[in-house]
Design a protein that fits this description.
- The protein is α+β, with helices and mostly antiparallel strands and about 290 residues long.
- Helices cover about 25% and strands about 15% of the residues.
- A 5-stranded mixed sheet has the order 7-5-6-10-11. Strands 1-2 form a two-stranded antiparallel ribbon.
């Protein structure tokens, strides 16, 4: 009877060659997978900004004016007058709170437990390329952080004594109420929202400019300035007043007409200033 045939095992060298080939294939495929993943996250980010812009337009249709940036940051709850949530200019809490009913967040808007309200997770306020909806206690109580900010145009600093100017679509309460007819440059060429530039090492902990969350007033958490150098998120070295994003090519921005476009890195602050000013007569091309 013939002896059974045996199948030779892999030699060590053959095994190492196979592992090396697998490692090379993984190395070739991984960048493509990451690119596809980032592309999907960027599209979701654009969709979030689209939803915010549409909520602002619905707000304008109902109220007759755009939401405001509030008065100033504080530990106070949203302004309630006679048991009713106040509208601007009495409402000291900013746009991210004011538009909640138009983002299907009426329940959060009506909460009387402020601690619970400001900690509520609002998914549309987070950029998927950066972090999931994130709730932290960074020194001002437990708060849901936000990745998007209203655009002030040139100037428009934050201190209570700051005189302005505030020439964006979303302005500080003391600047009065802005209506669509007051955007003389045109809604399609005036920036409404942009992404905030953040410190990559502080995504999950918050920072001084990323700690009061969506339920604050005039503050870098919900408003940013176009006259500060801007760019991609990085580890440290972030001023806290500028725009930017986690995306490799640029930041997503919602325009006043509800459209969303990519503002590429390298775009000058002079162009951002023009995009952020609703009445300067400038209509720069960012394509």
């Amino acid at each position: 009877m013939p002896a059974p045939r045996t199948r030779p095992a892999f030699t060590l060298i053959e095994l190492l060659v196979v592992l090396a080939i697998v490692a090379v294939l993984v190395g070739l495929l991984l960048p493509g997978v990451q690119k596809v993943r980032e592309s999907g996250s960027r599209l979701r980010c654009q969709n979030h900004l689209k939803q915010l812009a549409l909520a602002v337009h619905t707000y304008h249709e109902v109220k007759g004016f755009f939401p405001t940036g509030g008065t100033e940051w504080s530990h106070y709850p949203p302004t309630v007058v006679g048991g009713t949530v106040a509208d601007p200019p009495a409402q000291r809490t900013g746009w991210a709170f004011q538009i909640l009913p138009y983002l299907e967040q009426e329940g959060v808007y009506r909460m009387t437990d402020y601690a619970q309200q400001r900690a509520a997770a609002i998914p549309v306020y987070s950029c998927p390329s950066r972090r999931p909806p994130t709730v932290v206690d960074a020194g001002h109580g437990v708060r849901m952080l936000i990745d998007y900010a209203g655009v002030t145009g040139a100037g428009g600093e934050y201190p209570p004594s700051a005189p302005g100017p505030w020439y964006g679509i979303i302005v500080r309460n003391k600047a009065g109420l802005v209506r669509a007819a007051g955007v003389s440059d045109g809604l399609s060429t005036t920036m409404l929202f942009g992404e905030k530039r953040l410190d990559t090492t502080r995504y999950r902990t918050g920072a001084w400019h990323d700690d009061t969350g969506f339920s604050t007033g005039w503050d870098p958490d919900i408003m940013r300035l176009t006259n500060y150098a801007w760019g991609r998120d990085q580890a440290g070295g972030v001023n806290g007043n500028e725009f930017g994003s986690a995306h490799p090519a640029g930041m997503n921005a919602a325009m006043g007409d509800g459209s969303v476009r990519l503002i590429r890195y390298g775009t000058t602050n002079a162009v951002l200033d023009q995009l952020g000013d609703r009445r300067d007569g400038q209509t720069p091309n960012t394509d």
